[in-house]
Amino acid sequence: MKFGLYSSIANPPRGEDLDRSIDQVIAEAQLAEASGFDSCFFGEHHQDKDGFLPSPLIVATAVAAHTRRLRVGTSVILLPLHHPVHVAEDVITLDLVSKGRVILGVGIGYQPSDFRAFGVPMEHRTAIFEESVEILRHCWTGEPFSFRGKHYTLRLADAFVATPSTNMKNTMGLVDTYTEAARGAGRPPEFVLMRDAWVARTRAEADAVYGPEVMAAYRYYWENRLAEFRDIKADAGFTLENLAPDRLILGDPETCVREFHRWKDATGADYFLLRLRHAHSGGPPHERIMEAIKLFGDRVLPYCK
Asked: Is 169 in the same domain as 264?
């Protein structure tokens, strides 16, 4: 198995001291590299009051400049908000700066505020996304091409990334759908599972440190009626105890090792992207993230390779 980090860079409630957050994320990436992690990814949102940084490729470039082996990437660039030729050029530039360590992840987006910021009709996002992916592929062939603005049938990317809040049952359904489509397109299916995960000396410590942070994110998803949380009818069911099983990887090192192997066996995934830092709460604290990265490197990753 391979492991990466996903870092949400924000500083709630007002987005102050973001320069400190960036320094912390760079330090976390350097420790992750030293601890055996393979990659570090960054996302994109716009106009968030917590200061969520909107330019993941710039942050990835900063991390690449401070590391030597760690792969850097986006999860995800909101492709309908960008001209695809500009994205193609920026990614190639980062690929050169990082000496071939960049991984591009793109998505269609889900927050209306992201689209309002650029005057892009949200209902057009799928069509724009499909055309943009086609243009990206043309840009990287090294051959001249013309594009007439037609809506293409999307050919799936080289890998499928499952979001961290998706439970195992729904993840397996998505994996089955992707596998069928990838094989139909003549591509070998590859899976990357993004997981909300935390390792500590005990499960109680993991719950205390990480529980409030991940639950702040899940409450945001629940209030915005994301598909994973629509069936939760009231606050009574909205607890870490109810949401953690078959969703979070949480606990002592031995438990985390067992859970990674269980998810791998169930889904076929051999790449896990761990979301330790959360934008909605701004935590856990940097010092605790560093402790978790070190513990993952010492007591989890060696038993999952």
From this structure: yes
Same domain, 151 and 200: no
pLDDT band at residue 151 using 50, 70 and 90 as cut-offs: very low
The model carries a pTM of 0.81
- The two tokens of residue 46 are 């716009």
Find the mean pLDDT for residues 283-292. Answer: 97
How far, in whole angstroms, is CA 88 from its chain's centroid?
Answer: 20
Give residue for tokens 């978790």: 292
Alpha-carbon distance values, 278 to 52, 142, 146, 163, 183 (Å): 10, 38, 41, 14, 35
Q: Tell me the helices (H) and strands (E) count for the chain, helix number first.
A: 10, 10
One domain, residues 151 and 2: yes
Strand partners, 41: 6, 73
Instruction: Give first-to-last CA distance, the chain, whole Å.
Output: 5
Least confident of 38-42, 220-224, 251-255: 220-224
Q: Is the pLDDT of residue 271 over 50?
A: yes
Burial class of residue 85 (count of CB atoms within 10 Å of its CB; 0-12, 13-18, 19+): middle
**Residue 100 in tokens:** 């071939």
Q: How far apart are alpha carbons 78 and 86 in whole angstroms?
A: 13
CATH of the domain at 237: 3.20.20.30
Last residue within a domain, chosen from 123, 156, 189 = 156
Residue 156 clears pLDDT 50, i.e. is over it: no
